[in-house]
Amino acid sequence: MTAVRTEIRTRRRTALGRSPVLVALSIAALFMVLPFLIVAVNAVKSPAEYSQHGPLSLPNGLYLDGLKDFWQRVDYGQKLLNSVLISGSVAVLAAVLSVLNAYAIGIGRIKGRTWVLAFFVLANVLPQEALVYPLYYLSKQAGLYDTRLSVIIVFTVIQAAFGTYLLSSVLGQFPREIIEAARIDGANKWQVLWRIVVPVSRPTIGVLLVFFFIWTWNEFLLPLVMLISNDNQTVSVALGVLQGQRLMDATMTNAAALLGVLPAIVFFLVFQRTLTRGIAVGAVK
Amino acid sequence: MTITVERGARAVGKRPHPGPRRPRSQNSYALFLLPGVLAFLAVIIVPFLMNTGVSFTEWSGIGSPKWTGLDNYRRLLDDSEFWASFRHSLFMVVAMAAVPTMIGLVLAAALFDYIGKHFGSKVAAVLRACFYLPQVLPIAVAGIVWSWILAPDDGSLNALLKAVGLGSWQQDWLGDPDVALYSVMGVMVWVQLGFPLVVFMAGLQRVDPQLYEAAELDGAGWWRRFRHITLPQIRPEIYVVLTWCTVAALKVFGAVYVLTKGGPGGATDVPSYFSFTTFFEKTQAGYGAAISTVLTVIILLLAMVGLKLQTRAEDAEEGARA
């Protein structure tokens, strides 16, 4: 056994030296993460250092004033709070809505479910550009314009379109016997849903929660139109608008980039398994 | 996609044990759909119908719209800005669908059929993660990162070129009308690449490893295995990815807004951004609605074609397996 293992190990080591493919792929991967590295390195340089040595030198020390200034200037804490509040609410509400829809379609197998499902899939591909002006107008009429609630409502529905489609196909394969048994024991539909179907489908619902959260966090067009005031803006919108105004110097842009990148990296590390598994589930089902 | 669901549902529908049919309970499940359907009507269907209606009017968003019939659509046909924006969309399709799919295929096959086997799945997973990372970034943030890298005076890319002695290649990447569109394309390739890669790698998990082993025993090299096993086996995934990415490419907004604002001189304008400025800067809601309606029709047609190809590929695959 150990002989085999050492044999494999030596083969690996020699292969490493002999493998142009691995080297090429590693270089390509490095290129992909290079922008992140450059941003991280420059975000801790002082403006003087930056203008003297350019963006490619290594920093002399940790200069965090640029980050602090930027944080205060855009009230970044508030933006993070808005993003968390909006994305979190949407994730939970859209998951609940998806579960209700998918219960009727996948387990209830209601009449005309193919059409109902097609309708949800359609809603999924419909471009937001074709909804944005009426939504802007209607939210003004309803007194919801420039509120975080308006964005939460809209994205709950948009994300639930995907959730319904995914969960319906998962619940379509749900073992009927379990449900039958529960019904015979006198559980009603509502109890079956919350006590049996939801606990059993927890993995899929988990994938949906993560997806909805990240997707909503990254949304740009609708929040840009809906959230005008500084107090309501999300991270993505605030940073995008700032960049669009072309008023930032190199150091500020860099601080903005780093503060925008960090949450994404955190999500990525925390949810990496779920993300890659979820994509596989969602793409071909 | 929907077809598969159907098939699964029908398969389960054959109840495993003969029992008495359940009485009258089917229709009450519809109650669970009620909140979803109402919410969809309010947030998606009604606004969409409104938008289509407004596209036949002249309206500034204030007061009542004036019916003008097909005028907006006639105006579109003569509008060079509109045509330019759709032409740029094709460039985006190349950058976000064609190129990432091709590179993604080769990368997925290399990581799965070569790296994974020779260096272990850990190495493959780390490499995959590097390629996927840009996908989690908000597009607005990706735009900031790249604006800063592509800046003309003290941008990292120009500094890098200078450092390696290619100073003459320096460009005003986002400010030169001849270069800006290609720069945006490059950024979009970077953003999009991880998606096809991850989907294809997941698809390859389905493939029977014996196929590869048999081919290897027959002396088929990597390229032949790629051509004759990998490609045919993940055809459904290829169609899914091409459809998704093409639709995403037609909807590009955030990247253009943050990187170039459609400039310089409209060189990077795309339909989504064009409709946005028409709505909110020129306050021509009718004309903006017409642009977005055309975009919607194109996207829906594409999605249908993609779905058809995918289900056909899946059926062919099932047939081959049976």
UniProtKB/TrEMBL annotation, chain A:
The chain crosses the membrane at residues 21-44, 80-103, 115-137, 149-171, 192-217, 252-271. Keywords: Cell membrane, Membrane, Transmembrane, Transmembrane helix, Transport. Its main location: membrane. It comes from the Bacteria. The keyword Membrane applies. It is a multi-pass membrane protein. It is found in: Cell membrane. Residues 80-271 form the ABC transmembrane type-1 domain. PANTHER family: ABC TRANSPORTER PERMEASE PROTEIN MG189-RELATED (PTHR43744:SF12), ABC TRANSPORTER PERMEASE PROTEIN MG189-RELATED-RELATED (PTHR43744). Belongs to the binding-protein-dependent transport system permease family. This is Raffinose/stachyose/melibiose transport system permease protein. It comes from Streptomyces achromogenes.
UniProtKB/TrEMBL annotation, chain B:
It is a multi-pass membrane protein. Signal peptide: none annotated. Residues 1-24 are annotated as: Disordered. Keywords: Cell membrane, Membrane, Transmembrane, Transmembrane helix, Transport. Residues 86-306 form the ABC transmembrane type-1 domain. The chain crosses the membrane at residues 29-50, 90-114, 126-149, 179-202, 238-259, 285-307. Residues 12-24 have a biased composition (Basic residues). It is found in: Cell membrane. Belongs to the binding-protein-dependent transport system permease family. This is Raffinose/stachyose/melibiose transport system permease protein. The lineage of its organism: Bacteria, Bacillati, Actinomycetota, Actinomycetes, Kitasatosporales.
